[in-house]
Amino acid sequence: MHLFHRTESENLLPYDGVLLYIPDFIPRVEADQLFLSLLDGIEWKKDEAILYGKHITTKRSVAWYAEKGFSYRYSGTTKTALPWSPLLLELKTKVELASKEKFNSCLLNLYHDGSEGMAWHSDDETSLLPNSTIASVSFGAERIFRYKHKKTEEKVELQLEHGSLLLMKDVIQRHWLHSLPKAMKVKRPRINLTFRQFGLI
């Protein structure tokens, strides 16, 4: 197990992909304001999926924004994007300048407290551009984020801080799973924005 705290601008993975972390991407005062604006200004809804033939509604809330209001399917359900808000466009520009990448959509997650998390998975939907970069911005409660190699099961974890930026690049989704484990001691909400490159827009 590799544990990283405030390492930045170097690859945190030992092989098969690139993972970069910038802890102070957005200054704390600005991050505090953005957190409140996102909490109140985003059209949050419970996520839905079909798993093993059963309709599941998650505890966490989600929202999806993009350049055009298009739809795509995953986990047996259809998602339709909302048009960009001015705040999300401002954040997208910041992320694009820092990452030197372009993004055409953003999936947002709201975890109300540490009882909500995300199981092991890869962001490898066929509608995403192959090996494209995913940029993840975190606001609110700090949470542990874990990676596990699909073959070797080697693990890497880091603490995602308020106002931080995480970049998943290259072949990482092909070789690594990631998860947000539950943390029952965490009582505050966390908002996560993942800027993505869909090939359907």
Provide a brief overview of the structure.
This is Alkylated DNA repair dioxygenase AlkB. This protein has helices at 28-41, 86-99, 172-175; strands spanning 2-4, 18-22, 45-51, 54-66, 71-74, 77-80, 82-83, 105-111, 118-121, 134-140, 143-149, 155-160, 164-169, 176-180, 190-196.
Describe, in plain words, how this protein is organized in 3D.
With 201 residues, this protein is an alpha+beta fold. The protein has one domain (18-196): Alpha-ketoglutarate-dependent dioxygenase AlkB-like (Jelly Rolls). Helix content is 16%, strand content 43%. The protein has three helices and 15 strands. It has helices at residues 28-41, 86-99, 172-175, and strands spanning 2-4, 18-22, 45-51, 54-66, 71-74, 77-80, 82-83, 105-111, 118-121, 134-140, 143-149, 155-160, 164-169, 176-180, 190-196. The longest helix is centred in the N-terminal third of the chain and has 14 residues, at 28-41. It is globular and about 40 Å long.
Indicate the mean pLDDT.
89
Instruction: Look up the CATH topology.
Output: Jelly Rolls
In sequence order, what are the helices and strands, one letter per element? EEHEEEEEHEEEEEEHEE
Radius of gyration, in angstroms, nearest whole number: 16 Å
Percent of residues in β-strands: 35-45%
Q: What is the CATH domain class?
A: Mainly Beta
- If helices are DSSP runs of H or I spanning 4 or more residues, what is the number of helices? 3
Shape: globular
Distance N terminus to C terminus?
38 Å
CATH architect. name: Sandwich
Question: Could you give me the name of the CATH homologous superfamily?
Answer: Alpha-ketoglutarate-dependent dioxygenase AlkB-like
Q: Helix amount, in percent?
A: 10-25%
Derived structural class: alpha+beta
Low-pLDDT runs: 1-8
Largest sheet: 8 strands, mixed
Number of strands: 15
Number of separate structural domains: 1
